[in-house]
Structures are given as C-alpha cells and as structure tokens.
Amino acid sequence: MADLFLRRFNRLSPQTKGLWLGLIAMMMFGLTLPVTRLTMGTGTTTQLSPWFVTFGRAVVAAFLSIGFLWWKRAPWPKRPHWRMLVFAALGNVLGYPLLLAFALRTVTASHAAVITALLPLVTAVCAVWMLRQRASNSFWACAAAGTALVVVYSLLRSYQAGQAFHLERADLVLVIAVLAASIGYVHGALVTPELGAVQVICWINIISLPLTLPGSIMSWPQTAVSAVTWIGFAYLGLFSMWLSLVIWYRALAIGGTVRTSQVQLLQPFFAMLFSIPLLSEQLDTLTVGFGAAVVVTVYLGKRLGASSR
C-alpha cells in the first residue's frame, strides 16, 4: 500500500506535490496553536511557561536532529548557507514560537488564528521582496486589506470586552510573530534545494542550542505538570518544531515559495477546529467571519499579484 502511494505521488507534478505536502504540514501547524495554549494551561491552571515551551521543544528537536544527521553522516553546510540558516533559526525556532506562546497567555487559540491567518500573505510579501519578484498593485491592495481586517478585528474584540477601542498588545505580538515566521520560512526555503528540507530543519535547531539548552534548563517547571501537558509538549517538539517544518520546507522548495504558501489559507481553520475538542473553545460569528475575510484577501492577493518562483 505504501509503495503504491509513493509511486502515485511521484507521478504528480512538482506544484501538486508541493500543495499536498503543504496541506499535511498545515494540519500539523493547525494543532500548534491549541496545543501550545494547552501546554501552558487554560483558565486559572498554569502549566509550562512560554519560555520553557519555546526553548524546551527546540531542544527536543535539536537532539532529534543530531541523531538524524549522525545516522545519515550528513556533511556540514557550506559557508554561504550559514547566514540563511541563522535567519531561519531566528524566525522559526526562536521568534515565532516565543512570541506566539506569550500571546496565547491572554488570547484564545481561535483569536490568534485570525491574526496568524496573515502568515501566507506576509510570506508572499517577503518572498517577493527577498527573491526580487514583481507584484501588482492588486497584490499590495489585498495585503493592505488583510492588515486592515486584522486591525478592525482586534478593535472590535477590545470593545466586546468592555474596553475602549485599542489594539491589544497580544495582537501586536502576534503580528511580529507572523513577520518573524515569514522571514524564517523564506530563508529556509532558499537553502532547501541544496541541503534538503530535513537537513535545513536539523541545522537550524542545532545552531540554536547555545540559546535553547540553557534557556530550557533555567525555565524548567518548578511545580508538578500533568501528563496531558507533557504529551502536548512532546507534540510541539516532535511535530511542530521538526516534522511539520521538514514537510513545509520541502513543500516550499518543490512547489515554489509564493505558490505553495497559499496552502497556509487552511491553517487558521484547522486551528479553530482543533481548539473545540482540545480547549473547549466556542467559535463565534465574529471570529469565523473575520478569519474567512482575511483568508479571502490572502487568496485574492495570490491570484492577482504574485508569480510562481
């Protein structure tokens, strides 16, 4: 059965392969938001700190990476690769996970999913800029519309909470997290054709160890943590921090960064869907409506403005 699946998969075009791999990665990423919030505790129950969630899961992924590279006897990256790997590590290993964890202390996973729905559009913008691709005025108009929707959503949320109209600090943190992740994705995708997706993920986790290992030791939980929390933490280390990124970088390299990033449109809906059983969150019309509206602007931006890599 597995051989038959692989033969059929290998017959697909590179663009189709990239889209299917991207879909698998998005399902894994969709679990990241609710699982991250679950590992830190919900309501008045505190479990792991954002620092430990970020550093600890990166350490898990780093040791997996060391074992894999040793088993494969992989060569060291060449000098031109290191700069790309460092930027990918800063964005995907440290920046996005840490900022996301802090934001999820004060907002629900469904709320965060609306803001992070901008990720594919920001990834495309970064790709257009860094890869020196052209984008039409329609593309930039959609980017502005998507940003405006996120701002309006944040303002309405603050009003519903009985506060004056203002941007939530957590939303600003999430926007910075999205930017960090996008820059990391593009840098990782740039070296994936030469190193391979697995090696890129391995190296960005390994070169982060001088920060993540001491950080995880210093932020080790001082109180008892539930078994469910540790299971969630294991998921973040194995899947969110390693396997999903391997699949996603491979998808970007095969299908093209700008084209394949469109699959990220599904991530916020996976996150909302998984939040219902995991966190008992109730989806409201405002969240689903704005999430769908942001996704539409991202889709139109891809269709109207960005060319394939």
From TrEMBL:
Belongs to the EamA transporter family. Pfam families: EamA (PF00892). It comes from the Bacteria. The keyword Membrane applies. Residues 17-151, 170-300 form the EamA domain. Keywords: Membrane, Transmembrane, Transmembrane helix. SUPFAM superfamilies: Multidrug resistance efflux transporter EmrE (SSF103481). The chain crosses the membrane at residues 20-39, 51-71, 83-104, 110-131, 138-156, 172-193, 200-221, 227-249. This is DMT family transporter. The keyword ATP-binding does not apply. InterPro entries: AA-Vitamin_Transporters, EamA_dom, EmrE-like. It comes from Noviherbaspirillum galbum. It is a multi-pass membrane protein. It is found in: Membrane. Its main location: membrane. GO terms for cellular component: membrane.
